[in-house]
Inverse folding.
């Protein structure tokens, strides 16, 4: 029996989860990943031999059922760690705890009525089932309508600017609705936020996924970039890579849309143009390895429009410092257009840029606290979810026969994340398997 050969471009969680199901369905699957390891934006780096941490901060919510179910399916459920989240907000030189509805009620910088409205807004988000009417409303207008203008100015406007910068005013209400719904549904019995992490970090998880894929017969080619998706007579027939050409019956691309368009010159103009309609922000992430803690807060949002980061995330307040050789791991993440000069700074200059902002919140902070630091960059880290975004999304089944596309820009109305990468990868794998079953030539090849 001749197996259907499937080439998956990209070794992030979308490609990994799709590979698992396609191989189990009888396909001969090869993953091509240009980096030296799998994981994509959830990739890790080594702090010391045997100790790794994520390049960009990660956790799951308790309702991230797709990734959590996959972990159980792989026999790794005992590695899940459920942790009470400790979140806060920095405003006018003070840190306020905001981990529960009761904390919100005590947040005196906004009037009591706006605190109550903000709480009800979070409840409202969880009860919205039809998100489509939100597509024509900006996040700003929706937040002001339901949470109040003062709450928007104090809390939401700085956070939107920290996340989207110059694009903040263009973001749809669908994006903020989804965030509130997701976080509001990840609560413990006392109303506090509960998060999930993986014992050993995402590096241990990708090790487990790699082992499962290899047991199923999937071939993983790392340090192998795809230069072009080969198309003949309107059909994808393989990929040209840095290691040569590989023939395939099906190609599934999971790379960012701009990369996909670049590597697929045979795309029809209309489809390529649609792929180009979605805008992205890049990300520069400073990872600090400290010999002492900044604070007891895991996720500190900063309500200051002049503060350039989405927040300060002290990872070792989620996963203990003992798992990182006693070091305290802190992330400062900045979303920005990749054309900005800041994105091109070298590691030392980027740290020098960040240090004064850390000191603004933690005046006692000193360079002597820093054992070392790392800077990681991603060019296409966040799609800008604009109004009527659903009209911009390219179909997963491309106009080229046997060529499929699955990226973070297409999982709407959900936002990016490993949970939705798994959901989307497995969904497209099912579509590919169904399409193969319905194609006479595929049936003949398998006979």
């Amino acid at each position: 029996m001749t197996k259907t050969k499937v080439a998956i471009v990209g070794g992030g969680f979308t490609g990994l989860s799709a590979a698992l199901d396609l191989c189990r369905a009888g396909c001969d699957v090869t993953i091509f990943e240009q980096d030296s390891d799998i994981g994509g934006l959830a990739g890790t780096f080594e702090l010391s031999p045997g100790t790794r941490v994520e390049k960009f901060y990660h956790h799951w919510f308790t309702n991230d059922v797709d990734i959590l179910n996959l972990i159980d399916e792989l026999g790794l459920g005992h590695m899940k760690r459920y942790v009470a989240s400790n979140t806060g907000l920095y405003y006018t030189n003070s840190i306020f705890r905001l981990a529960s509805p009761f904390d919100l009620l005590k947040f005196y910088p906004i009037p009591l009525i706006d605190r109550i409205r903000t709480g009800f807004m979070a409840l409202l988000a969880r009860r919205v089932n039809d998100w489509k009417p939100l597509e024509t409303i900006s996040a700003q207008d929706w937040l002001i309508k339901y949470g109040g203008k003062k709450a928007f100015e104090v809390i939401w406007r700085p956070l939107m600017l920290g996340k989207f910068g110059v694009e903040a005013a263009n973001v749809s209400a669908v994006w903020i609705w989804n965030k509130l719904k997701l976080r509001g549904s990840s609560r413990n019995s006392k109303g506090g936020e509960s998060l999930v992490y993986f014992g050993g970090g995402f590096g241990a998880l990708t090790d487990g996924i790699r082992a499962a894929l290899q047991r199923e017969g999937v071939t993983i080619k790392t340090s192998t970039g795809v230069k072009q998706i080969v198309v003949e007579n309107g059909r994808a027939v393989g990929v040209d890579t840095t290691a040569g050409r590989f023939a395939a019956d099906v190609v599934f691309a999971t790379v960012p849309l701009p990369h996909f368009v670049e590597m697929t010159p045979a795309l029809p103009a209309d489809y390529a143009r649609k792929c180009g309609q979605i805008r992205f922000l890049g990300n520069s992430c400073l990872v600090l390895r400290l010999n002492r803690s900044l604070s007891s807060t895991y996720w500190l949002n900063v309500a200051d429009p002049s503060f350039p980061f989405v927040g300060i995330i002290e990872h070792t307040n989620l996963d203990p410092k003992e798992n990182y050789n006693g070091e305290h791991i802190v992330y400062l993440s900045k979303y920005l257009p990749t054309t900005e000069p800041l994105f091109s700074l070298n590691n030392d200059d980027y740290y020098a840029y960040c240090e004064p902002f850390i000191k603004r919140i933690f005046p006692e902070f000193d360079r002597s606290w820093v054992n070392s630091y790392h800077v990681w960059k991603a060019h296409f880290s966040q799609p800008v979810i604009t109004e009527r975004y659903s009209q911009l999304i390219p179909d997963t089944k491309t106009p080229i026969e046997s060529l499929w596309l699955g990226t973070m820009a297409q999982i709407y109305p959900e936002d990016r994340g490993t949970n939705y990468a798994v959901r989307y990868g497995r969904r497209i794998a099912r579509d590919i398997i169904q399409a193969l079953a319905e194609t006479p030539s595929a049936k003949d090849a398998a006979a």
Summary: Residues 66 and 419 are 6 Å apart (CA to CA). DSSP finds 13 helices and 20 strands in the chain.
